[in-house]
What does this fold into?
Amino acid sequence: MSGEKAVLALLDEKPIRAASFIVTVYGDAVEPRGGIVWIGNLIDVCGAVGISETLVRTAVSRLVRGGQLVGERSGKRSFYTLTPAARVEFSLAARQLFSPGDQDRWRFICLTGESVEDEIRHLERHGYARLTGDTLVGLRPLPPTLNDNALVFDASISEGETFLGKFAADRFTLAPLAESYRAFINRYSKLTTGPITGSDALSLRLLLVHDFRSIVLRDPNLPRAALPGDWPGTQARRLFSERYLDWSVAADRQIGRVFVNESGPLSRETPATTARENQLQTYSA
It folds into this structure.
């Protein structure tokens, strides 16, 4: 099928929200190129996946109020840049998306203070599991917004690794995550495209990242010994890497051709984009 039909097929299966997709655009295309872009580029790239200009402007305003973006004007154009706090958050998300690595450093977090339940929900959304009322366990990097009153222990396994699978199964909710990975595999393994234009390649790559990001940011990054034998996450990551690399040459060319900041065109390639693609090569091999 053509690139345009492939984009439409993905959109028919799974509609997307404006604010969440703009976060994807920044994470994939803008953050590794300096973190600032003209709002006209956001309007165009979102329009290619069916998001109206009105929804884009509303979502950008919401992201500004939420402390993720800051707006500035240059002449008649408005540009939006990631805040320092958002850049830290995006950097952690990019690591989880492109190079999570093998984790063996367990963290036990004991929370205190008035907002314990909110903090627990935040950590659970980022791959931690609740052990007791105020204590969680996980392997993911600590979020930058972690409660200042949190007590954190680092640990490694010294004995009993054969029971690790049962420990994980009893505490981490893996079944919904596995189902999400299987749906991702089904969605993108059946997607075939012929030669595609730069705009379609960019749309496809952004949709790919958008879908995969929604799964991996919930993944606790458990070691292989703690996972079920039929765990689909490995296959999903390999498929993500292959599709991302398939579409990247044309997608990056499109970014370099049309995306601009207040100084001019964004770079087609940067050390950050090259590092990402090099890391993905190791998963697709």
